Amino acid sequence: MRTFFIGAFALCALFWFGCQLNQTKTSLPNLAALAIVPHPDTVNLAVNATETFSLRGTNVSTSQQQISNSGVITDADYTVTTSDTTTQTVKAGDAEWGSTNSSVATVSLGVVTAIGPGVANIIASVGNVVSPPLVVSVQAVNTAPGLTLNPPQFSVIFTNSVAVSGNVQPSAKLLVSEASSGHNNQNVAYNASTGSFAESITGLVTGFRTIVVTAQNASQPSLATTRYKYVYYYAYLSPAADSICGNWLGTTLGRNFNFAISRDQFLPRYDINGHIDIQFEGLGVVRDITLTGIVNQDGTMSVTLTQSYEGFTISGNLGGYFKSVGTGEGSYGAAAKKSGWPSISATATWTAVKLP
After folding, report:
1. What pLDDT, in 10s, does the model give residues 143-156?
2. Does a structural domain hold residue 291?
3. Rg of the chain over CA atoms, in angstroms?
4. Do residues 201 and 211 make contact, with C-beta atoms less than 8 angstroms apart?
5. Which residues pair with 155 in a beta bridge?
6. pLDDT tens across 219-269, in order?
7. Are residues 126 and 165 in the same domain?
8. CATH number (domain holding residue 204)
């Protein structure tokens, strides 16, 4: 019995160890498909906008198992083949990217940049595997460019030339025109960084004139912003311009002041003479500061302020312009100085109307 048990055990052991499993696995990853993700039907972008995309690859992996069994009882050889489909991220740098219309959109390492209005297809490829196209539709930025003009919006001038200045949104096309002079600049230069511009217009005809300033979207001209500057042009020292002569009542910080405008008897100009009270912080109101100056041919005022007050020397300037023949506005700045004292300054705006 014992002998039989040992013999049976030996036979089973021989059979067990004789069944040898020789298995070898060869992995054959194969990129079968490539897709740009996310992949909507159409990507809508505005000019200069960017959007980043990634790549997803589909791999088919094939494995073969060679199995050989040999032993006392059995002897068999067979091959088992299996396939497995997986997806994985493909690095943008491992693919070639391209656009069917680089004037509409460009692409680099998955980053799509909108260049101009239109439609373009973005494609990526790895070897012979090419992604389905990603459709990119580019629209012009759907806003009109920002545009501001420096004051005054309306002024009286006594010469046939005027300047208009302001700021425009960079990349816009800027146009300035005025009918009576024939001025029509369709491409006004401006600072590319700040958008600041200044345009001089000459040859105005006397009377009420309108200067038209328009900023157009460079990609879509129908999107535009228009501002206006109005001037009333009187010939300097003409009977019409003489209507500014007379007594004026000004107001600043709730206090009134007076000045007069007259046509000089000897020189071809208009003179301004008067007095103004100015509030200085820490010093109080200094009264009857003398103001003297002239009306410039562009309708602005150039006036100096002078006074001596308890050892202080008051000096400054008053500037402004005529909003109409009978109204004006502007601002002034003055300083009060005295030996041994720090300088004291004052600034404020003013308005004025001509008295009957």
Report:
1. 788 899 999 999 99
2. yes
3. 43
4. yes
5. 231
6. 888 899 999 999 999 999 999 999 999 999 999 999 999 999 999 999 999
7. no
8. 2.60.40.10
